[in-house]
Amino acid sequence: xxxxxxxxxxxxxxxxxxxxxxxxxxxxxxxxxxxxxxxxxxxxxxxxxxxxxxxxxxxxxxxxxxxxxxxxxxxxxxxxxxxxxxxxxxxxxxxxxxxxxxxxxxxxxxxxxxxxxxxxxxxxxxxxxxxxxxxxxxxxxxxxxxxxxxxxxxxxxxxxxxxxxxxxxxxxxxxxxxxxxxxxxxxxxxxxxxxxxxxxxxxxxxxxxxxxxxxxxxxxxxxxxxxxxxxxxxxxxxxxxxxxxxxxxxxxxxxxxxxxxxxxxxxxxxxxxxxxxxxxxxxxxxxxxxxxxxxxxxxxxxxxxxxxxxxxxxxxxxxxxxxxxxxxxxxxxxxxxxxxxxxxxxxxxxxxxxxxxxxxxxxxxxxxxxxxxxxxxxxxxxxxxxxxxxxxxxxxxxxxxxxxxxxxxxxxxxxxxxxxxxxxxxxxxxxxxxxxxxxxxxxxxxxxxxxxxxxxxxxxxxxxxxxxxxxxxxxxxxxxxxxxxxxxxxxxxxxxxxxxxxxxxxxxxxxxxxxxxxxxxxxxxxxxxxxxxxxxxxxxxxxxxxxxxxxxxxxxxxxxxxxxxxxxxxxxxxxxxxxxxxxxxxxxxxxxxxxxxxxxxxxxxxxxxxxxxxxxxxxxxxxxxxxxxxxxxxxxxxxx
Length: 640
Fold this sequence. Notes:
It is a single chain. By secondary structure, the chain is of the alpha+beta class. The chain has 4 domains: 3-219, Heat Shock Protein 90 (2-Layer Sandwich); 245-387, Ribosomal Protein S5, domain 2 (2-Layer Sandwich); 412-505, Rossmann fold; 506-640, Heat shock protein 90, C-terminal domain (Four Helix Bundle (Hemerythrin (Met), subunit A), Up-down Bundle). Helix 2 (29-51) packs across helix 6 and helix 4 (101-109) runs antiparallel to helix 5. The longest helix has 24 residues, at 354-377. The N and C termini lie far apart (85 Å).
């Protein structure tokens, strides 16, 4: 058979070099990753054999073998699982098929310490490459179940790898590591040593549901009992194969839970929180869930694999079971073991299964209650959770009406109350001023943009707290959520506002007088700017700026309109309202000039500039930037 040589994808090559040059503090984990991959392959074969009677695969003794040769300094991890085809080897090993690869590599290069690097590598999940931490060469031999030919892959971890089609490969995959020489003073890292292999498997992979075996040499006794006979192999099972979720809490250590999480998530760091759930009664199931400590880099990409591993009576049925967890909790990892489901249940059946729906609802409530417990019992860990997953959790405010109040209760938001610490809605309500009826918020691209918005001026002057919402999802959920604990959510950029108690509100007679004073100007400007605005009115929210643009109470914000257009939806352009600050000298001067000169060109240009400044102040875009700049330059020139 001919051998072909291929080059690694650029990002894969860069990542390999980082791995080879030891970005990890604990090299033992390479074996954990290989055993974990082998276990996944056995799970997949077991599942495929259930669904496809014609597969013809032997599933009578599914297991993982570890074989060490101390003289040749090789270590082989072998499984008789699903295996890989020629094309799958190229796709899964020669290439890192992910749109975020380049960004990930940049972040990895910029990691300031080992812990940060390990955290990033864990988010990306490239466990096979860990072999090159301890090996000069790695050889993989694999044959996919149901196929007649196998594939041999080999590489020294440099720029290339070789592929060869072979006819005599056994079903499954074997990975042989040609280990680097071990330091004579560092026997603790001799990965051909049986005791070292036992230690690693026991520590990291004891819960694997398939037997992990190692053949250890023994000496056969001669007839006279002198022990000089030929060496014989004795298979030894290294793991207990006990499902952690089926054992009582006092039988399982925290580190064992963490290793299970790393196995199912391919994360290299410990989870933030472990969640256990046992349901008894007419429908019994056990769940062991984990909240990760950081968000995976591809959490918001379309191809992100989400869901929980589903078992039926300890038998693996499905990976990434999306039906068990709503999309806004897609970051949750874990295992659910049900007692009364069919082993060959399909994804389509699961979507309609009433028992699955009941589990999904119960699991979601349990996760949210766990987050609430973190909020009250461990503020630092809650802050980590919200920083990593708050943005995706808020998606549930749009999709999970049943748990909307629970989601709101565990949500935090930036606020004018504190520059550094976010606030909960409960804390906001407790701080509300006497007579304040609404929870006020403003959406925008960044905190700086929102805080400097003209819409905030009256709120700052009166010391009224405003939530600063800068995630794209905030534009959507604020219109869908009516309120919290009887308090309505209200945008400071929409509708007319009357702030403060009755004593602070402007006298009705004074307001009427001012309205009459500016009536002609407001009517004239509404006509002049009619293509852009539907009304010009006096403002109660401005104290410093001359003008601002607001929407009616139930209209879409401009950012939301742009979001829908970016998604390909046809959203008609809506006219908004221009509000003027009658206390500003520019507005007062414009009113006096209009009374004296009515409708000359200079006044029309001033009105246009006033609208343009208000649009730019809220981060909007001008229809004709060049015209605006020319008008401004001409006006500045005349002022000199």
